[in-house]
Amino acid sequence: MDDRQPFLHRMGDRGSRIGARPPRSRPLRIALQLGVALLIFGFLIFTVASQWSELKRKGVHFDPVWVLPAFAVLPVFYVLGGLGWDLILRFLGYRLPPARAQVAFGQPLLARYVPGSVLYVLGRLVLSERAGVPRRITLASIIYEQAISVASGVAVASYFVIAHPDLQDQPVRWGVLAVVPLAVVILSPRVFGPLSRRVLAAFGREPLPATMPLRGVLAMLVFYAFNWCVAGVGVYFAARSVHYLPCSKLPEVGSAQAIGFVAAVLTLVAPAGLGIRDAAFAWAVKVALPSGSFAVGAVIAIAVRAVFTVVEMVYVGAVTLAGRRYERTQPEAEPVPLAGARSEPG
User: What sign does the CA torsion over 220, 268, 322, 254 have?
Assistant: First the structure.
């Protein structure tokens, strides 16, 4: 009977069951968990090691005076990222306790260091499902999150892109001004609702029970734009640790980081955007340098990547400990359904 279904329907049905029922054998469960952990850790160690050797080869030395404030600011960026995703879930009709939301958002972050984004997305789906959020809602929230993050990042960096010296003979650069209005139109419930129903129907899945209201999309665009400004401050401190940059260059450095993120999202194959994100950041940040040197921009990009990697590891460890503490104190907590989400017609 399964073979008579359309191919996309079979894919959707099988994909919806991945990770839903862990193996009954305890040794097998431990082996699978350990294997995934070692795979992620192996790619993470490879990433850090390759960056470190590159830093040494270029003669870069961190200045703790500027690195320490970067370590203080960038964790706020990740905490706000978890809060932003939690707010998106609430607009979709689900309220998670703050600790559970941070765990579901934060624990899978290191999975991005494995090529592709399958483990990262799957981790978010499984952890959210254990907290009581249906997979379709979590997947929709991730789509909203990535689309709004990209649109807000482009909005923050739009003037920088238009004024970039390397793009002055490219009329297409003015296209960045259309990204935010286009995102608002696509993510509005009257467009996103029918669009998501068609995509889910192609995979034999039921339509989403709710979509984000337009006011929610607009509010989250502002929220993520603010979070990109927070990230820009942290990135400036990290960049300042390897090269002198006056405070007046902070907008250029912050915009360069947003450009790197957008490049990473548009190329999902590289682990955590490794290489592509760094090259885009180096190309963008060179405008803030008196020499305009791409090589110096690359050194700054490597330093920023190293700081981000350490901050991610610390953040993931912190949310893991917080999650374990929360599970011990409130093991039976369930998500609270919210009113106000835009219901989709059956």
Answer: negative
